[in-house]
Amino acid sequence: PTQTVTPAPQFRRVLLLSIDGLRPDSIPLAPMPNLLTLMQSGAYSVNARTTFPSATLPSHASMLTGLCPQKHAVTWNDYLPEYGYAQGTDLFDLAHAAGLKTAMVVGKKKLIQITEPPSLDYFLFVNDRDLILAQRLSVEAPIDFNLLFVHFALTDMMGHEYGWNSPNQLSVIRRADEALGLTLAWLEANALRQETLLLITSDHGGHEFTHGSSDPQDMTIPWVLSGAGVRPGLLNTPIQTTDTAATLAWALRLPLPPEWDGIPILEAFGQPQPLRLQPFCEDR
């Protein structure tokens, strides 16, 4: 018998949501019913890996540039505009060059340093709770986006304040799930959900009151794909955060730069999975 290959899905837009500091084991503990529902109906991994150091700005740079840290050269983790931007061609660069509309709504201002301003059509920084960010997103963000990156910040902040998987952090994770629900409702209300590929992930986990190390609790992140054309189930392909950019570029029919370290996770779409020619970033 020959293998049946699912036709490649067509997506008009992608929405990437990063819940800063979310460990996979926190999802059922909180719990997060909206995210759990997306996992049940979508493709997911609870063993995806971030890059080292497992810190917010370097990890998000790898997530959106498809590059290991030594290539994008983001070694700082604060808003330092004098340091410039991540090196290399990022996902926003690809989308904007193709005439697609790009947007970023974030809870930490430093994430603007991932891509240079000409590649962003819309940017909103909300220094407030995840629910407030989601409410402002639903009112202010453009509905004609092709690439939208959303970042919820509070899970990470409460981890540093009260400890990872502490009752205080888990309560905030439940609120992040409510903010996810508001975002999904915004898509539905504007008839965007059917043609949107959702990818929900994180930049890093954490242990005790910190992160940044090579500890598996810091390095392991969730990775959830949802949308028409996604084949439901647990993914067998080992996933690194650089694969996020590659997967979303593939979904938008954008060319993958040859220097990217990430690969598209086509298993999620019932397609033959390409081989990973480069080892994971932290294995080099």
Low-confidence stretches: none
Helix content: 25-40%
Structural class: alpha/beta
Count of individual helical segments: 10
Q: Largest beta sheet, briefly?
A: 8 strands, mixed
User: What is the β-strand count?
Assistant: 8
Q: What integer value in Å does the Rg equal?
A: 17 Å
End-to-end distance: 39 Å
Question: Could you tell me the mean pLDDT?
Answer: 96
Overall geometric form = globular
> What's the SSE pattern?
EHHEHHHEEHEHHEHEEH
In spatial order, strands of the major sheet run: 4-3-5-1-6-7-2-8
Proportion of residues in β-strands: 15-25%
Description:
The model has no long low-confidence stretch (mean pLDDT 96). The chain contains 10 helices and 8 strands. It has an 8-stranded mixed β-sheet with strand order 4-3-5-1-6-7-2-8, with helices on both faces. With 284 residues, the protein is of the alpha/beta class. Helices cover 32% and strands 15% of the residues. The longest helix has 23 residues, at 167-189.
What are the SSEs and their pairings?
Layout: E1 13-19, H1 26-29, H2 33-41, E2 43-49, H3 56-65, H4 69-72, H5 91-97, E3 102-106, E4 122-125, H6 130-140, E5 147-152, H7 154-162, H8 167-189, E6 196-201, H9 216-219, E7 220-226, E8 233-234, H10 242-251
Parallel strand pairs: 1-5, 1-6, 2-8, 3-4, 3-5
Antiparallel strand pairs: 2-7, 6-7
Helix pairs in contact: 3-10, 6-8, 7-8
